[in-house]
């Protein structure tokens, strides 16, 4: 019976043209105490497949890439999507371009693409080091999942982690 009520309410919302949930705004990390444990486990899952002698070199490089954002600020205007992790400089990608070029802090050329749906925004950032895919997906009005996947020919498999944020 509850499933039928839920489907009925969802149908009314869809047919009435209800506003889609928005990712825009400030989001705060949840379960911060366990975040480092999740990231360490993700790194270990990748480095366990790397040659024993290279692991000690690979681990700190991958750990550096698993930056924890305590707060995400997300915004979209008529021409671009902006995202900011804590007090770091914001990233931006054009909404209507096939791709955008930018320079990293260390002088690397990065090509970025953006994919946007009603409940999800993905940025794909590629350089000679590899590819980083960031996905912000709204789960409910006050909950969002942020997933990052790092891919490179220097690691045996993608490094992926997901964190939960709330408004």
Summed up:
This protein is α+β, with helices and mostly antiparallel strands and 167 residues long.
Record the SSE blueprint.
Blueprint: H1 2-15, E1 25-29, H2 32-47, H3 52-65, E2 71-76, E3 80-85, E4 91-94, E5 100-103, E6 109-116, E7 120-127, E8 130-140, E9 143-151, E10 159-166
Antiparallel strand pairs: 1-2, 1-10, 2-3, 3-4, 5-6, 6-7, 7-8, 8-9, 9-10
Helix pairs in contact: 2-3
Explained architecture:
This protein has 167 residues and is α+β, with helices and mostly antiparallel strands. Helices cover 26% and strands 41% of the residues. The chain is built from three helices and ten strands; from the N terminus they run αβααβββββββββ. It has helices at residues 2-15, 32-47, 52-65, and strands at residues 25-29, 71-76, 80-85, 91-94, 100-103, 109-116, 120-127, 130-140, 143-151, 159-166. It has a ten-stranded antiparallel sheet, with helices on one face. A hairpin with a 3-residue loop joins strand 6 (109-116) and strand 7 (120-127). Helix 2 runs antiparallel to helix 3. The chain is globular and about 50 Å long.
Low-confidence stretches: 1-18
Number of E-state strands: 10
Strand order of the largest sheet: 4-3-2-1-10-9-8-7-6-5
Query: How much is the radius of gyration in Å?
Result: 18 Å
Q: Structural class of the secondary elements? A: alpha+beta
- Biggest sheet features: 10 strands, antiparallel
Q: Give the ordered list of helices and strands.
A: HEHHEEEEEEEEE
What would the average pLDDT be, to the nearest integer?
84
Give the helix proportion (percent range): 25-40%
In DSSP terms (H or I, runs of 4 or more residues), the helix count works out at 3
How large a portion of the residues is in β-strands, by DSSP E? 35-45%
* CA-CA gap between termini: 31 Å
| Dominant shape | globular
